[in-house]
Specification:
The chain has nine helices and six strands, in the order ββαβββααααβαααα. By secondary structure, it is an alpha+beta fold. The protein folds into two domains: 167 residues, 2-Layer Sandwich (Beta-Lactamase); 106 residues. The chain has a six-stranded mixed beta sheet, with helices on both faces. Helix 2 crosses helix 5, helix 6 packs antiparallel against helix 7 and helix 7 packs antiparallel against helix 8. The protein is elongated, with a radius of gyration of 27 Å. The relative contact order is 0.12. InterPro entries: Longin-like_dom_sf, Longin_dom, SEC22a-c_C, Sec22a/c. It is a multi-pass membrane protein.
Length: 307
């Protein structure tokens, strides 16, 4: 079996695949390798510039530089010094071929697919030991790896945060890695932005009224302590609605309905202190924000984004 199975070039900031080997490597871990590459691509901005990930019978090594990451999938027993030498060659060839401005402004996945020719040529050379005439460069690489060894990744480190499901047991014999949802929401719309601003405004109004009520209580004007609690709870609910509008989290829809329910209860209790139009404004904003939270869902990767 070949030592180098597949390789990919990915942009660090957003995981956009720029180029990848296209031979498929059927029966040699190709599909599993693509899943590993996708899993790593989502975390590149959080990873050190040199890493290794052991996954069953395979190992993925990667290096990152100038906003671009280079990954290689190898068989388990293949020397790491050869893998990082392979990646170092890919890196030098890619930098010599494409400038940083082009990689930073790339929009389409695989827009540098012509680089696959270089990947295949380098892969064939490294899979034929007799063609390797780089003893000196390998010695230099071995010294560098001893001085600065790669960070050893675990599958647990790649698990997505914020409550989205992560399937990370593929290479232990318990199944395959499935695509986890990307940790981003759909682009903000104008109604969503308006809902965010109004929610924060309602939160500020509740805070101001709550402070005034506390002052009245301290002056013994007979204010009920429950009004203070209602104002503060209303403020917290409005601010949390703003958070749900802006950030992905688990059970967003359920949390938005519970938060809206709390807003309604607080305003019902405050009906003696607020006029009908004030109550209508707060409840309407809460309902509008709840709707926008429902509409702005976590987005999956765009079509064609798979490595």
């Amino acid at each position: 079996m070949s030592a180098v199975l597949s390789a990919a070039v990915v942009r660090v900031r957003d995981g956009l695949p720029l180029s990848a080997s296209t031979d498929g490597d059927q029966g040699a871990g190709g599909p599993d390798g693509r899943r590993l590459f996708k899993l790593l691509a989502r975390k590149l901005s959080q990873l050190p510039d040199r890493c290794s990930l052991h996954a069953g019978r395979h190992v993925v090594h990667l290096i990152s530089s100038l906003g671009v990451s280079y990954m290689v999938l190898c068989t388990e027993g293949w020397p790491g010094v050869l893998a990082f030498s392979f990646l170092d060659e890919l890196q030098r060839d890619f930098i010599a071929t494409y400038d940083t401005a082009r990689t930073n402004t790339a929009v389409r996945p695989y827009c540098f697919i012509d680089f696959d020719t270089v990947i295949q040529r380098t892969k064939q050379r490294y899979n034929n030991p007799r063609s390797l005439a780089t003893k000196m460069s390998l010695a230099d690489m071995q010294t560098e790896l001893k001085l600065r060894p790669p960070h050893m990744l675990t599958m647990a480190e790649l698990a997505p945060a914020n409550g989205f499901p992560a399937v990370v047991g593929a290479f232990s014999g318990a199944g395959n890695i499935s695509s986890a949802q990307q940790q981003r929401l759909e682009p903000a719309t104008l109604p969503g932005t308006v809902a965010l601003v109004l929610s924060l405004l309602c939160g500020a109004l509740n805070l101001i009224r709550g402070v005034h009520t506390i002052e009245s209580l301290l002056q013994s004007d007979g204010e009920d302590l429950s009004y203070i609690i209602a104002f503060l709870l209303g403020m917290a609910a409005c601010v949390y609605q703003g958070y749900l509008l802006a950030r992905p989290t688990s059970w967003r829809s359920a949390k938005s309905f519970l938060t809206f329910g709390l807003i309604c209860l607080c305003n019902l209790h405050l009906s003696e202190l607020r006029g009908p139009w004030q109550l209508l404004f707060h409840v309407t904003v809460g309902a509008f924000a709840t709707l926008q939270i429902r509409l702005r869902q976590p987005r999956a990767k765009a079509p064609g984004y798979d490595v």
